[in-house]
């Protein structure tokens, strides 16, 4: 009888573990890169270059960064390495090849927010600005 309980316990534990794994996979276990708010502007990274280099958006809106390059980028606010001018940009952060992410709502007190690739801060083609109107 004790041996039967042991087998039942093992099967029960296995079923619980399998259920937990399936639940986490189907209920947000992976992060989505789909934006929930349409962006006011889109900046595309291709061939180690951002385009357009400068965009203007209404205060409170978001900007999408699309990585069409064949390598990852880490888009952050100026200045380097503090990234404190416009923290909303820092929510983009690391972008894998083919990935799209958006800034937070651009509500900073600044009117011009510079950005750059944190991993290549001196590459001018990966620098630009977001003007908040």
The CATH homologous superfamily of the largest domain is called Cupredoxins -  blue copper proteins
Q: What series of H and E elements makes up the topology?
A: HEEEEEEEEE
Which class do the helix and strand fractions yield? alpha+beta
The neighbouring-strand order within the major sheet is: 3-9-8-5-6
Radius of gyration, in Å, reads 22 Å
In CATH, the topology of the largest domain is named Immunoglobulin-like
Oligomer: single chain
What fraction of residues sit in β-strands?
Answer: 25-35%
- End-to-end Cα distance, whole Å, is 76 Å
Short précis:
The chain contains one helix and nine strands, in the order αβββββββββ. It has 133 residues and is an alpha+beta fold.
Report on this structure.
The chain folds into 2 domains: 1-30; 41-132, Cupredoxins -  blue copper proteins (Immunoglobulin-like, Sandwich). With 133 residues, it is α+β, with helices and mostly antiparallel strands. It has 1 helix and 9 strands. The strands form 2 sheets. Strands 3-9-8-5-6 form a 5-stranded mixed β-sheet, with no helix packed on it. A 4-stranded mixed β-sheet has the order 2-1-4-7, with no helix packed on it. Residues 4-34 have low confidence and may be disordered. The radius of gyration is 22 Å and the shape is globular. It starts with a helix and ends with a strand.
């Amino acid at each position: 009888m004790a041996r039967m309980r042991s087998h039942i316990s093992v099967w029960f534990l296995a079923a619980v573990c399998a259920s937990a794994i399936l639940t986490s996979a189907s209920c947000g276990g992976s992060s989505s890169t789909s934006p929930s708010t349409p962006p006011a502007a889109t900046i595309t990274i291709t061939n180690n270059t951002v385009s357009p280099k400068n965009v203007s958006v209404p205060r409170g809106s978001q900007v999408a960064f699309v990585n069409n390059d064949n390598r990852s980028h880490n888009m952050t606010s100026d200045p380097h390495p503090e990234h404190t001018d416009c923290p909303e940009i820092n929510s983009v952060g690391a972008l894998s090849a083919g990935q799209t992410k958006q800034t937070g709502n651009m509500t900073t007190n600044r009117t011009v927010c510079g950005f750059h690739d944190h991993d290549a801060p001196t590459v001018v083609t990966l620098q630009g600005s977001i003007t908040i109107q």
